[in-house]
Queue: 4 jobs
Job 1
Amino acid sequence: MKKEKYFDIIKRPLLTEKSSALTSGDPKEGYAFEVKFDSTKEEIKEAVEALFGVKVVSVNTVITAGKVKRVGRNIGRRSTWKKAYIRLKDGDKINLVEGV
């Protein structure tokens, strides 16, 4: 696949409290990414390995339902999206924040 295709699959890293707790764990490094809704685990694994030059051990995906939100009297709904939890081989690491 082309590199542009990989950027379509991996939308952005999720830098949340839960994802930072995953990366600080000793046994395995773990990362969370927002991914394309119709992407498969194999595509996600291939994209992470190609973009970051690491070896992926496992990929777990979660579909997060969009929340109902209200602004004044208007009621709307946020989009449903997909996130992937990535576990890397021992010793591999992804630098998500520049300068760290």
Job 2
Amino acid sequence: MPTSAPADDRPLAPHVLDNPVWAALSGPQRHLAEVTGGGARFLADVAPFVAVADPADPHAWADLAALVRPGNIFPLTGGGPLPDGWADRPGLEGVQMVATPALRGEADPRAEPLGPADVPEMLDLVARTRPGPFLPRTIELGAYYGVRDRGRLVAMAGERLRPPGWTEISAVCTDERHRGQGLAARLVRHVAAGVRARGEIPFLHAASSNTGAVRLYESLGFTRRKATFFHSLRVPAAAPDALG
């Protein structure tokens, strides 16, 4: 009689999206990073995100503390225990989503490329819609596109983290007076078309509480890969467990 194959109890190999900020900072976006040993951060006016190469390695946290400096607050994406002394301020539960073949990437004739001259308008739109962090040089992370109404920027989306083989779609936002027109969906598809043209796979993050956005992304062809957490950490004045 045929016998079933023995169960493979070997641990799964780490996936690049398990630590996407580190993968981006130590890889394709290294030119926009400061890296010290096992700790890394984006340049201060590019993005606020930091990462450690291995969250289980106390030396990596020591490197990050030296890089970010005590007393400073920074966002960190991911789960797992934090070292003693690293105060976790109120954060957000989130979800990481990846594109499936159902995501239809297509160019949109209304989507226009945004460049450095558009940054003041982009910052203004972000301040009004709060899609997440966006700084004066965030536009250097990738391609950004917007839709205008009578010359005024009313919606945008673009690329943020770029771990090898993947590109995060981010800064998806629409002016309140222009919602309900499908602009966010059209821009996500437009950005996704460019990502796929490079042979990469789109992914994104969303707050679990933002159920409207999560439903939109699912309807476009994204699926939930894993739950995550958006921490807000303060570097301790002294963290003996991490620095020892």
Job 3
Amino acid sequence: MTQNDYDTLGTKIKKLRIQKNLTQAEVAASLGVTPGYISNVENNRTAMSLRILVYYAKLMNISLDALIGRIDSEYQPTALDRDIMNELAEMDPDNKKKLLQTIRLWK
């Protein structure tokens, strides 16, 4: 990871939280930290420990490697594959069939 990756981690963590419609207080309660800590992370004033990153990824319903892939540009292709698989796992069979037909048209 580059320094720039670390510098944007908080912003990406905030974006994920907002996508899940969670408040800083809700995330903090789930992770066993204070809302101030979450604010500091999101504003790049402090970095999450590995333990908290693992819990955060679980809370966001993504794998840790998907979370890191969103941060580390060199890891993004693998993380993209993981994100696609996670989305597929949540789809119903009819939508999976439609998606497969669409993919085959693109090829």
Job 4
Amino acid sequence: MLPGVYSAKKKDGTTYYRSSITFSGKHISLGSYPDEQSASSAYQLAGKLLYDNTISLDMFSSGTSVLPFKKWVILLNFRDNGMYIKTPIYLKERFFHYYFAEHDFLTFDIEDLFYYSTRSISRRGGHLFVADYGMQINILSRYGIKNYAVAGRDFRFVNGDSRDFRYENIEIINHYHGVFRKERKGTVYYETKIHWNGDFLVGRYDKEIEAAIAYNKAASILITKGYEKEYPVNYIEELSDAQYHEIYKNISVSPRLKNLTPRL
């Protein structure tokens, strides 16, 4: 058997070949191949990537490489940074890139390394997810961005790069459901809307927290009167129960909601 190659059998008895290499005391699997020569080629290429410091990610060619780009990232990161990571992460000084393909990556703060080194990111419908405790979690929630949030309206990437998830680059504009930050002639105010016969204007408020509580009050009125049954709740963690209830009692909402005829 060629170096770095060993044979195995599938359940149907078919023989296939696996390849692996050891570097800095770490045994690294390189994948499975239909023939011994392909597995050997993977072993030889992995050796070059790990021992030849002149090889970089920019030299990858999908048409000629027996190893996938993900494996290039893993091996070159191990070579250059001394840390073996199973996900396609390449470390920089204070941040890292998570690669999907050549020239296609996300940027994260180094504080997020443990999280993304143990979870693979997948794309679906333009959204980014990780599998976490058996659930598909949108990674935006990790940065305080709600599932219903719209880029440019509820949050923005400060430097304009929507692939840069460093904390300093993410600005939350609207923190609460149904609340929208507005500005008129240099004055900031908050507008509350709720879904009832379209986007219904509950009111306009000086403070974001007041606007969020107004949404909760509007939702409670609609539910009590037998209209929509499922509205998300805005949680105001910085207020005590007494403070919350005082604002809730005194906050004004559109008279149209109060005057609604209850649904039977």
